[in-house]
Amino acid sequence: MFAREGYIIIAIAWLLVVLISIAVWIVPDLHTWVRMLMSLAAVLCIGVFVLYFFRDPERTPPPGAGDLLLSPADGRIVAIERIHEPAYLRGEAKRISIFLSVFSVHVNRVPATGVIEFERYVPGAYLVAWHPKASEKNERSELGLVHASGFRVLFKQIAGQVARRIVYHVAAGDAVQAGQRLGVIRFGSRMDVSVPSDVLLSVQVGDRVRAGESVFARFPCAAD
User: Fold this and answer.
1) Mind listing the pLDDT tens digit for each residue in 205-216?
2) In the chain, is it the N or the C terminus that has fewer CB atoms within a 10 Å radius of its CB?
3) Closest Cα partner for 195 from 74, 106, 71?
4) 189 labelled catalytic
């Protein structure tokens, strides 16, 4: 299964593969093995890579996901920091930053069950995704949700130096479920999740996580 946000790019990529393949077979004075090698290179480096990038595997949230904070993205946790978050949490917070390489699944998922209260799209720069200021300087979407218990979560899709397109499919007022499909960030990027500072996290820097499956925390109100 492939992400619908990538259908046009997939079509363009495979059209380019076909054109390259035709071109190498009509260019004179090339050995057959050279033509075959160039065609194969186009298929693998363009066509297959684009299909791989836009893969959209099914994900099954863990039991009790309604009381859990889940990872919104595939990748590696590169930072967990204490910050002041003024836009939605309006106070001291913990921020978890996930780096998505070009080889990660780039379909993002909602990290918790609740209602979207805050939505903002911010044009910006294209610093490398792991830059300390990427969360504040780069182009990004910012979405805040509130759980039925009052627990609030802010999550951001952040463009990187290569990623230049952020897509999301929720809006303020929407009721969402933990693990629900959110959107994509194209070609390498970062995703941040901010929670109140007293939340006990179950992940650490260096952990590899999967969207909609890896547990970051349990809501403070939930019984163990």
Assistant:
1) 999 999 999 999
2) C
3) 71
4) yes
